[in-house]
Amino acid sequence: MAVFSTFRLLAAGIAAAAALTSHVLPARELLTPAVAAYDELAPDLTEPEDTTLSEGAVTIPVPLPEEGSVTISQAAPNTPPAAHTPAVAPVTPAQAAASVKIPSGPLVTDSLFTDAYRAYRKGNLDELLRLQPQLTGHPLASYVDLWVLLLNAQANPKDQETVRQLDRFISTRQNDYVAERARADWARIAAKNDDARLFYHLYKKLEWNREEPDLVCSKARFDLKTGDRKKTAALAAARTTLRDTPLAADPACVRLRNDYLALRPKDAWPQLLVLLQQKRFQPARDIIARYGRQLPAARGTLLAVLNNPSKWYQNNKNRLARQKAAVLLFAGLRLAGTDPEAAARIASTAQKKLSQSRAALLWSRVAYESALDLEDNAPRWYRKAGRKPGSAPDTVGQSNILLWQARTALRTGNWHSVRRAVEELPASIRNTNDWLYWKARALEKTGQPRTARSLMQKVSRTNGFYGLLARDALKKSYYDAHDAGTPVPADAAVFGRFASDPSVLRALRFYELGLTMEGNREWNWALRKMDKAERLLFAGFAESLALTHRQINTSESTRTFVFEQQYPRPHREEIESAARNAGLEPEWIFGLIRQESRFLRVAESTVGARGLMQVMPRTARWVARQKALQNFEDGKLTDLATNLTIGCEYLRLVADAFSGSKPLATAAYNAGPSRAVSWRAKLDHRTEGAVFVETIPFNETRNYVKLVLANTMHYAFYYKKSNKTTLSDVLGDIDPKAEQPVFLP
């Protein structure tokens, strides 16, 4: 909902629950998708990273292991999802589950577990030790045992008894997710205490968490301590890690940078340029303070630019030619994210003074930041960046720079430029459905219809946003009856095995407590070694428990299109009633809720948006006043009827503000109406709706709009057989309109 960024599901009443057992050190946000909704985390325009990849066969990004994702072999990017046909007469999940004993409901000791969690987060070992014996026999007691051991290890990392106990804890729980969590968090403690032997011992046994950015930084730091034969490779790996990490300011990555520069002090300048592009200004200040003599410009000048770039530019804009090349490069990178026009003027002055690679680095950053601002000058500045923008040494985010070159070409409508830009993308991005679609469009527009049609046919065999658009282009129906797939028939014996799986039991207990993210990790741990048929059965098991969010994600993990598992309609009567009362199509609301909360009534985002439709309390109070809703209070936002009424009425107001445009209204619901107004105002001509969506500057909102609208189409075409409105019809064209104040929250 407006304006929430990263979707996370948290414990009701416990704001930090998503971090439960994730880190012994203070919890941090990761640039990863949230498992509960497979939402790609979208940095706003203050962040350099843009991690958009593909809609994929089932239109979801694959989450990183930190969030408890499932490691499965990935289908080729454009492999069509296969429908599954049962071999025997179906049995419903409810029928199969009827004879299975599944523990449910609160336990007497649940409140003690919540107390233990709070004690752990506060580092209160005495309180944990008091609660530990009272939780013996609780399904989640092993987590409390782990927290006690980790706090002991933090306080006394060399204590041999604690080491033995942690070793024993892991060895007796080899098959449990909590052992994986123990290794990852113990490895963090080992890294903090410079215990390379213990770190390597734990790190090499990690199954899911090797790619957690702080652990990657710690491994790279320890690799620097290897012998001379491997030193060159370790230095190169450290430099790459520091350039690519999303956690440049994390203590583990700061230590890596310090150790790297201790070995290579002459690289202080390249590291400073990297930090400017990452917008990590405090670590940049630290480098200036510590390595001033290694830098090609005066410390005071660099700090003046870093601390107040606008003031420096105003004082020096008429004498840029007198500045050193290094100062101009530094100032251009610093200003690129806040004032691309000023940065471009600096780059023009600096071009004759800089080496070709450094000039390319600067122009690439200016062009990229300008493209994110949807500025008209972006194409011209991309041309100044050279044949392959972003390829110069020490350039952060080359893939993102190239992606925005392609998006900029889309905005201009220059199809020759679109084709060239798509061909320059890395193969891992170029061959995704998104960019195969746009390449096909460019080929068709530039005189190669046969090749274009072949590519479009390939994309049309998938079911995501671009798969549907490809079918529109080919005038194909969205799917015939057999394409909808059928779940594997439910099996009481298999359901009984699921119900006795310790990981499943822990997941169910976490869900009972409202600790959804931790439940997802345990659920996915149970899922990780299942084959396709078992996963479809596991999705049916989730359905029998009304765990709709697990039903959807478990079924989607198979890359098999099983419609009724993946596009269910829980709370159908209530949703349809609220939608119609607000004058909205129910299919749009189903599509939006599927993305917002996966139909989880207690869902709460990190910024406080609540319920099925993820309504912010402030917005809800405003809507309640506008609609004269009586006796509304924030606590009612998790009430099903209240949440649906408020959410639908707000979406109606947003849709009216954008003349009924679903792309604009959906974007506004996610990012806020003022942002959608601003993006529309940046258009200089009538623009195809699909181009507008692809060039939304926020990753989260761009992917959100694609997913919500594709969901809407699936609900409409499957359940509303008479529907003839295509995704292309819904997207339409977007007309530019001057930016005006928006009187909506």
The fraction of residues in strands falls at under 5%
**How confident is the prediction overall: mean pLDDT?**
87
Q: State the separation between the terminal residues, measured CA to CA.
A: 10 Å
Can you tell me the residue ranges where pLDDT is under 50 for at least 5 consecutive residues?
A: 2-89
Query: Number of DSSP helices?
Result: 39
Estimate the helix proportion, in percent.
55-70%
Shape: globular
Structure description:
There is one protein chain. By secondary structure, the chain is mainly alpha-helical. The chain has 39 helices and 2 strands. Helix 35 crosses helix 36 and helix 35 (662-671) crosses helix 38 (699-719). The termini are close together. Mean pLDDT is 87; it is low at 2-89.
Short description:
The protein is an all-alpha fold and 745 residues long. The protein is built from 39 helices and two strands.
